[in-house]
Amino acid sequence: MEKLVIKGPTPLKGEVTINGAKNAAVAILPATLLINGSCTIENLPNISDIKISCEILEKLGAKIKWNTKNSITIDTSNLSTTTAPLDLTSKFRASYYVIGAMLGRKGEIEVGMPGGCKLGARPIDQHIKGFESLGATITTEKGTIYAKAQKLTGAPIYMDVVSVGATINVMLASVLAEGTTVIDNAAKEPHIVDVANFLNTMGADIRGAGTDVIKINGVKKLNGNATYSVVPDQIEAGTFMLAAVATKGDIVIKNCITKHLESITAKIIEVGGNVEDNIDSIHVWCDKRPHKATIKTLPYPGFPTDLQPQMGVVLSLANGNSIIHESIWDSRFQYTEELNKMGAKITAQGKTAFFEGVKKLTGSPVYSSDLRAGAALVIAGISADGITEVYNLEHIDRGYENIEEKFRKLGANIKRINE
Ligand code: UD1
Questions:
Q1: How far away, in angstroms, is 121 Cα from ligand 1 center?
Q2: Contact 208/253 with Cβ under 8 angstroms?
Q3: Domains (range + CATH), the chain
Q4: How many CA atoms lie within 13 A of 232 on its CB side?
Q5: How far apart are the two ends of the chain, measured CA to CA in Å?
Q6: What is the pTM of this model?
Q7: Are 209 and 227 in contact (CB under 8 A)?
Q8: Dist. CA 165 → ligand 1 center (Å)
Q9: Which of 27, 29, 214, 304 could form a disulfide with 53 if both were Cys (CB 3.0 to 4.6 A apart)?
């Protein structure tokens, strides 16, 4: 079993470069299934979710060549099957994007129910509603989803909840449909814009991504033959911004789009941190104990749920009592029990957590329950007195490329040990 062993406290100092966005990349890879040709994708994060995505595409018949550790050329001219490998698709959430893409390309797909972080109920009713509106039939049986369509026809689709996954999946299914699809109450996250930009680069006609109405005019074919670079990861950048505050550090975060980080910047300033926006890099520093704050997670451009646990570490160390209300997921406070082992004073009740700020955290063995909880525990370990051991690294490796190397370069005493 692998663990990260961290000796703290260390104020993080220096520069860190952000990778391409996981949540964009895990959608762009299946989106290549819509292309009758090949394309090159650059700035791919080298993480386990991407490796599994590539394996799934290869099992469907795609030919993949790795140009560097962050760039692939993928040829999806000849697909050999419409059955996705059930063992692989059930390993992570974004495998559901294969449904939209394969419905568009082949009119058929059989895929396992998506896995991913256990954050509470994760229904896919809005995805199904969207596919059905376009003319597909979806059935589920014993953990397998069967999707089929004689023909997909563009339609108006109103999303009952703002969903990143459903917005992207319906966008994928409508790119090659006949006529126009309008997605109303669409999610607006930067990775939605990135997937639309990728598809448009390959020949699609998508307008309005980044607003809550997306219009997709169906085209006959995507030819590909182009190179696309994935947008920088908003959540990875936010993780290092909050690490600077929690450790009373001073970090320049390079290769990020600061516009995507405004909600995090605002909260960092509110708790007494300093932020200097340099357009494609952001400088964050903090030399005192953070102030208390109230946080409510919301769809973009609100404060992202995927940075809620990392913000939780900051508030556990704040001067005063703070509150976080998690409005997206039912079960996203599992990390608070681990922080309490380190001396934090947090009471979680349903979707709200109350933080009584403490002066310091103390090292302890802790277990990540999911990807972002894992990142939060690493930050907590770097800011804590003594030795912290972080277990369940498979969660962290799903979404962060070389996390310990990046923190080590910022001065952290952190190493990965295989017990
Ligand atoms: C994506 C992100 C995840 C992030 C989340 C919210 C990826 C791969 N994952 O997850 O990291 O935490 O956005 O920013 O991009 N819902 C329904 N019915 C549906 C779909 C969603 O009720 O059909 C609900 C969910 O239960 C949740 C809310 O809508 O309460 C938002 O979920 P959604 O935006 O779909 O999250 P994911 O795409 O799964």
A1: 10
A2: no
A3: 2-19+232-418 (3.65.10.10), 22-229 (3.65.10.10)
A4: 21
A5: 5
A6: 0.97
A7: no
A8: 6
A9: 29
